Amino acid sequence: MRRKFMTLDVFTRTRFGGNPLALVLDAEGLDTAAMQTIAREFSHPETVFVLPPESPAHQARLRIFTPAAELPFAGHPTVGAAVGLVRLAGGAGRQSFVLEEKIGPVSCNAQAHDADSGWAEFQLPRLPADVGQVPGTAAMAQALGLNASDIGGDYPPARWSGGVAYTFVPVRSLAALARARPDAATFERVFGIGGPAMVYVICTETAAPGHHLHARMFAPANGIPEDPATGSAVAAFAGLHAAHRKPADGEHRLVIEQGYEMGRPSLMNLTIAMANGALTSASIGGDAIVVTEGVIEA
Known about the structure:
It is a single chain. By secondary structure, the chain is of the alpha+beta class. Helix content is 20%, strand content 40%. It has helices at 32-42, 75-89, 137-143, 174-179, 187-191, 231-245; strands at residues 2-10, 19-24, 46-51, 60-65, 70-71, 95-101, 104-112, 117-123, 129-130, 158-161, 165-170, 199-203, 213-219, 224-227, 250-258, 266-275, 278-297. An 8-stranded mixed beta barrel has the order 1-2-3-4-6-7-8-17. The radius of gyration is 18 Å and the shape is globular. The mean pLDDT is 97.
């Protein structure tokens, strides 16, 4: 059966930057094995399959796959799918709707910039939580090909989840972050806590002024040697930032840069709301642009 698809670059307004995403439309009738095979064929960090929603009040149901596994939730697929669906609907102005993901309903706002690009923002479907201990500094450094003295900075090593669990490893400089290379012999053993390792290496030294965090994400066992932009990691980071930095009550906006070392610069906008010293909500937003359209036989 011929099924329409489009690919988008997400968290950028420039084609061939950001994080590539495949969006498969007309996905009814595909089983899990077929979706995984198609995701492996596209070989993008994630592929989204668009299905009719279970609730008539919602826009669509999404299933999200890396080349190796299905995810309950992910950021750049949510932003890219929202922009793609607004484009297909041909609507103008800001639109609000709900997308169904395995994590649950995800509330989105989106609007088109022009015929091929747009912006979307989604509310975190659940608040992030601290999910346990992290390995020792020496083990983390070895698994990332770094020196123990490289580890440290303005955040502590931590493990948080906003739907997908990440180990956060702070490093002291952009130079150290650029040297990070997962060590095949130790990476999964050190970071694979209860499943394939998902590691977000962060630094408060940034490549561009006005940004707040520079990051790299490694998840080789999930088919992602390195990810150009990782919204679900930013969702988890909202919890680490709130717990460690303790921002004042009110709204705070952060810009996270990622993908620079890959030649695919990406910008993710994180907005957090604090009340009585606690994180009460957060949202992640960014741009996306269509790169290709076509059909796939599946």
